[in-house]
Amino acid sequence: MPDIAIGVDIGGTNIRAALVSDRGEILTKLSERTPTDPLQVLERVIAMARQLDRPDVAGIGLGIPGRVDVANREILSGGILNLAGLNFAERIEAAIGKRVVVENDCSMALIAEMRIGGAKGYRNVAMLTIGTGIGGAVAHAGSIYHGHRAAGQLGHICVSQDGPPCPCGRRGCVETFSSGTALRRHIAEAGLSAATVGEVFDLAAAGNDDARRVLRQWAAPLRAALDNIAATMDPEVILLGGGLGCDAARALADLPAVAPWFCPAILPAKLADDAGVIGAGLSIFGNAGGAAEKHVVLVNGVPASGKSRLAKALSERTGWPILSLDGIKNPFLQHIGPVDRDFNRTLGKASYQAIWSFIADAPASSTFIVDAWFGFQPKAQLEAYIADAKIARVAELWCKVPGTVAGERYASRLKDRLPGHPGAEYVQELVALADRAEPMSCGAVMTIDQTKELDMDAVVAWVSQVFGGS
Ligand SMILES: [Zn+2]
Hints:
Blueprint: E1 4-10, E2 14-21, E3 26-33, H1 38-52, E4 57-64, E5 67-69, E6 74-77, H2 88-96, E7 100-104, H3 105-116, E8 125-130, E9 134-140, E10 143-144, H4 175-178, H5 180-189, H6 197-205, H7 209-233, E11 237-241, H8 245-252, E12 266-268, H9 275-282, E13 295-300, H10 307-318, E14 322-324, H11 325-336, H12 341-361, E15 367-372, H13 379-388, E16 393-400, H14 403-412, H15 427-436, E17 444-449, H16 456-468
The structure holds zinc ion (ZN).
Zinc ion is lined by residues 156, 166, 168, 170, 173, 175.
């Protein structure tokens, strides 16, 4: 049985609520018109959550239109529908008796898009939802970025200081030029007889200059905002969602980025109206990007096969911590002094066990890099540790070197080895071991030729594909 949560997406037009599995599947879905009175919205959300609730529901995620202080579960402001100052989360928690998480609605949509939608496999993403207004959300290193309280208000990037007034109190925010509301204004001001953006595209394709100008008025400020996002946070991709996300991406295609430094990759969101409820449900299980799963990268290879250098380079690129067998064992060797090979092996086994007990105790959203010569213990032992630690995905980087190279490297480092590590007598043994050693193959394996330059771009891309794919 998968874990289940209730996701609620409160929009200006509809309230959507759904039972969502920890894999992002919708099991049951409800939808109602949104009342205009905030207290009635609260009542309807409680009624919908009651209808969906069952004993195995882990909690309720709420996507809120407006700025949200996630840590304090406080709604700071809203637009047309303003739910601030109602103790929304506390009142729903009291009514249903389940844990409640609140988050900005666009952040919830981004959680879903990173897990199973248009940004799957990416860890640094910005998203804009283009509808009545423009919502925004940012993910950094796989998690929603909140800044001090409510970061990611990308609809309020100013693109013209003397532009139209914005509900935020300033003028010329991108929302005032490039939202659906603004598009209707551009159409009316041009005197164009078009009821939908599709009709504007048709007129423009037929050579209508007014229609072309309307599309430019709508999309050019958005292009400026996207370039600003690229300049300030350099995401891997920017997703365009909401009812007009695909149309905005189409209009932008005629307006390439102007600055050679800042050319963001722009993708349409994939989950349409369901993104909000799916992300709201997933928010109960962890954070964005499928991070509710625990992952490990095994950096494996015989002694002197270049594991530590690779593990360090991967850690620098991803921010994931390294647990290395020698990192745990060596302090013991320093304190105990010279030991024989049997005792060295016992220390190795204990250090190995310590690594997996750290990982087992870590939260579900963790990713670790484990640097060890795994072949010194049986595969069945490793499989048991992986199962006990509830690790969802394993990526193994297999450091391959010819025996002679490993032997030479080991011999050249003998003077730096701590007493207790095998000495010169081990070199011949290592040469033979390196030639016959194999990866553990408890998950996906990438073989790294350690006689060549490391291609870290390829390594990082492969690992994120293993962890991002389902
Ligand atoms: Zn604004």
